[in-house]
Amino acid sequence: MKKVGFIGLGIMGKPMSKNLIKAGYQLVVSDFNKDAVKELESLGAESASTPKEIAEKVDVVITMLPNSPNVKQVALGENGLIEGARDGLIFVDMSSISPKASQEINKELVEKGVQMLDAPVSGGEPKAIDGTISVMVGGNKEVFEDVKEILEAMAGSVVHVGEVGAGNVTKLANQVIVALNIAAVSEAFVLAHKAGVNPEAVYQAIRGGLAGSTVLDAKAPMMLDRNFNPGFRINLHIKDLTNAMETSHEYGSPAPLTAAVLEMMYTLKQDGFEMEDHSSLLKYYEKLANTEVSK
Ligand code: NAD
């Protein structure tokens, strides 16, 4: 079995790395959060202080970090994995970052013999814990086949979608669809509430029809319970929609609805809600309509 390095033991990375240990992989981990590192050590993982040291010790390095600058730092910065690179080392970045950043990192690593895949995920913390996340993978098909088993130990679905960067383009598509859906549900619930119809009844009446969706089933109960604990934080979704706008401009693909929802999220950030779940988009519409939705 391949020896795996795992950098970034946050909400997602910690349960994902635990699933690799459960599947029998030998792990070398690191994170700024020493408690998370200790927890993995107690399960049998080794730890290392730099990405360079991890790269020297393993066959495959996985990262699960917040955004492009974090991945660039870990891959290409001082004591980064590039300094421990050798022919045949595989780097799988599972963070959601800009596709352009993935391509830039790949370009530098490939010169040192490192093969890179961008493999962001969808599903959130519960699916990371269950090992049922969906993984969308960009990069060389043979390298993909080589590490597919490792990815499957953390996932319910693993799909190759194209060259390096394609994984993160797919993730941006996912994030656009999710954000616009939540905004639509919020707009509709405030409309129903103001018109005197119980949004809970609306939800039950429509969830089996064409408006039904995974997003509706995940977020409507949270909105109706006024439970805005994350889940997926507004500030992470701002990061993803900002990357989506940059990418849409780069490729000449206007995204007017994404731009509008991004501005709604910035408004929520000004109101102090950036650490809440993205279902708090409901609060943006409540403010516009001067109301509060209740069951
Ligand atoms: P998080 O903030 O909980 O975890 C990130 C971890 O990386 C932290 O523990 C942090 O200490 C660590 N870190 C940052 N820089 C580091 C460095 N240089 N060296 C070592 N460790 C470092 O974030 P998360 O929620 O786990 O998300 C990670 C990625 O997954 C993001 O790109 C996010 O958009 C994506 N994602 C998140 C979810 C979700 O529901 N939370 C779902 C799908 C995808």
Fold and architecture overview:
The chain is an alpha/beta fold and 295 residues long. The chain has two domains: 160 residues, Rossmann fold (3-Layer(aba) Sandwich); 121 residues, N-(1-d-carboxylethyl)-l-norvaline Dehydrogenase, domain 2 (Orthogonal Bundle). It is 53% helix and 13% strand. The strands form two sheets. The chain has a six-stranded parallel β-sheet with strand order 3-2-1-4-5-6, with helices on both faces. α4 links the parallel β4 and β5. Nicotinamide-adenine-dinucleotide (NAD) binds next to α4, β7 and α6.
Keywords:
295 residues, alpha/beta, Rossmann fold, N-(1-d-carboxylethyl)-l-norvaline Dehydrogenase, domain 2, 13 helices, 9 strands, 53% helix, binds nicotinamide-adenine-dinucleotide, NAD(P)-bd_dom_sf, NAD binding, oxidoreductase
Structural class: alpha/beta
SS elements, strand count:
9
- Spatial strand arrangement across the major sheet: 3-2-1-4-5-6
What shape does the CA trace take? elongated
CATH topology term of the largest domain? Rossmann fold
User: Uncertain runs with pLDDT below 50, 5 residues or more?
Assistant: none
Q: Give helix % range.
A: 40-55%
User: What is the radius of gyration computed over CA atoms, rounded to a whole number of angstroms?
Assistant: 20 Å
Please name the CATH architecture of the largest domain: 3-Layer(aba) Sandwich
Summed up, the helix count is: 13
The small-molecule ligands in this entry are: nicotinamide-adenine-dinucleotide
